[in-house]
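Hi C.,

You asked whether I'd gotten around to modeling the 312-residue construct. I have! Everything is below, sequence then structure, no commentary in between.
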Amino acid sequence: MLAALLAAALVRAAVPAPASSVRMQLTPPERITVGDRFLVTLTVTSPPRSLVTGPLADSAGAFVVVDEKRSDRIRPDHDESTYKLSLAAFRSGRQPLPAFVFLVQSGDRRDTLRTDSASVSVASVLPENMKDIHGLAPPETFPNLALWILPPALVVLAVLAWLGRRLYRRLRRLQTLAAAPPPPWEEALAALDQAPWREWLESGQVKRYSYTLSQILKRYIERRFEFHAVEQTTTELLASMRAHRTPMREEVAGCFNRLDLAKYAHSVPPAGEAESAIAQVRDFVLKTKPAEPVATAAANGAAAAPVAGRST
């Protein structure tokens, strides 16, 4: 049995590999005009397990390759690669097709294949009776009032353009001020109130619930503590929070770990745990938002009033 296998291997090694070749098939429509696409099919035959590079062209000439599709077929004694090129011409007349070159490497052997020469006739899209040069216009009579009206009109147009530009810039400034985003804590609390959490959980959209809650928390952390958080993984985010000494890191880590289980492990949390995660994110936002100066001043004034009463 072993001897038969060795003999078959020697016979297979003694058979020379088929030579590489390229074949071109042109299927143009009945009439080609400038800009029309037509198909050129190139078929490369090479020894098995060969590396085929191409198609290459020194110059496309009057054509451009609009699209290219490749398909490979492995046969018992050779490989076959088919390239379907969609070409379009941008110059009329009889135009030669570019010569496409393929480089085939099979072991230590390297072959350079070049397609045969071919040409197509490209028709112009312009009417045959079209004239490039028109007759001369009649002479202008003098005095020409347009010469006196044109300079003041240009000055008026320039002034109007300057005023319009100033008005446009002022409107853009007002729109920018009006479109300023709300503070991060207000944005996060509004997002928590507007999201249909219960509907998602009851319909089984656990991944959507966990992803939305995770993005609300990441965006709040990014805007509130001014470091990139939305595009970070949980591990990277926790490391950034430690580097920026963000408060309540343990609570945030636990919340993200539960959300990651729902997103990636498809773990369905109980309804109570899901609502607890929303409340935990809300509590984190409320505890980390900056204190309001007006409320602080009012509280200080209310605390100072009894002290003043006792001193009198």
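If it helps when you're writing up: Residues 145-178 form the longest helix (34 residues).

Thanks,
B.
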